[in-house]
Fold this protein.
Amino acid sequence: MKLLLTIVSILTITVASAQNGEIILGNKFYKEEKFDKAEELYRKSLAKKPSPEAQFNLGNSLYKQEKQEDAIKAFDEAATLASTPEMKAKALYNKAVLYHKANQLNEAIEAYKAALRLTPNDAEIRKNLQLALRTQKQKQPDEQKKQKPKDQPKEKKQQEPPPPKPQQSKLNKKQAEQYLKALEEKEKQLQEKMRKKTNAPAQPQKDW
């Protein structure tokens, strides 16, 4: 599916007034890609009186200056101020696109759904929603794989048997055997000596 992550362009104003004049001039700067000047004029218009058009166009000018968080807030406010479902859907859609580009899929999906509920026949919103849902589904197995290595050491640690008790070295055992053998041999010799002494003939008495 082709990626359709493009925002809805600025809203145009046809009715002339002091406030709308600033929006119209801001739109002129926007089309000339002088986004900072456009932002300044949209803010001046909003300072006089909040309007969904100025708020929406402010979001676009902020987005073009790569001020993503400020742009999202502007589109949120535009959705709140919107007087028609179509205008609100455009603001929500632009907010969803910015979340989508930032890979914040949960937020993007929620905003796409809100926009689609307002304009159910909008094919572009539907396609982007499907794309976001598919990307989210593909990412879930990867996140589970990343989590498994972290859990494995804990499991291995729990399954490890207790360390064996220290045993005496072979050298000590051998020495002990030699020592016992020497004692036995010594005792045997002593017994043999005693036996010989007991069986020895008595010395003859001297004649006086």
User: Anything to note?
Assistant: The helical segments are 18-31, 35-48, 52-64, 68-81, 85-101, 105-118, 123-159, 170-199. Residues 166-171, 200-208 have pLDDT under 50 and may be disordered.
